[in-house]
Specification:
By secondary structure, the chain is of the alpha+beta class. It contains 3 helices and 5 strands.
């Protein structure tokens, strides 16, 4: 208040309160616009496929199948993990895994990128082929 009074000598308490109210309204409007912009970005992700690089050994693939701006709870999607290191190679599926919104592009992570649907579909196809072969091995059909 001292600073405002120095800049505006002779101001009343009411003028100062109006000044604070204006600052609060402007800040609320900035937050609303930023949230609206973020929601538009999140809404644009519906139907898109993503790859997330966790540590250059583990890669996750998922597809956002619904508008995630309407959801206040966690986003859950089928998540294909491709893991490769010097001893292990595997593809796994985690049904309805929680997808952290912070992973998505524009939300604070550079490790997640949008990929073509064809790439996502290839990962799904390879996983399905692996499952088919595993069943054949289990059943002695090879």
């Amino acid at each position: 208040m001292k600073e405002y009074a120095r800049k505006h000598p002779g101001c009343s308490l009411q003028e100062y309160c109006e000044y604070l109210d204006n600052i609060a309204r402007e800040e609320a409007e900035r937050r609303r616009l930023k949230e609206e912009e973020n929601n538009q970005l999140l809404k644009s992700f519906e139907g898109k496929c993503f790859q997330i690089n966790f540590n250059r050994q583990s890669f996750g693939y998922f597809k956002i199948t619904k508008d995630i701006t309407a959801l206040r709870e966690d986003v859950k999607e089928d998540f294909y993990e491709v893991f490769i290191d010097s001893n292990t190679t595997r593809i796994s599926l985690e049904k309805k895994r929680m997808i952290n919104r912070q992973w998505l592009p524009g939300q604070g992570s550079e490790k997640c990128t949008i990929v073509p649907e064809e790439l996502f579909n290839k990962v799904v196809k390879y996983y399905q082929e692996m499952c088919t072969m595993a069943e054949k091995i289990r059943d002695g059909e090879l």
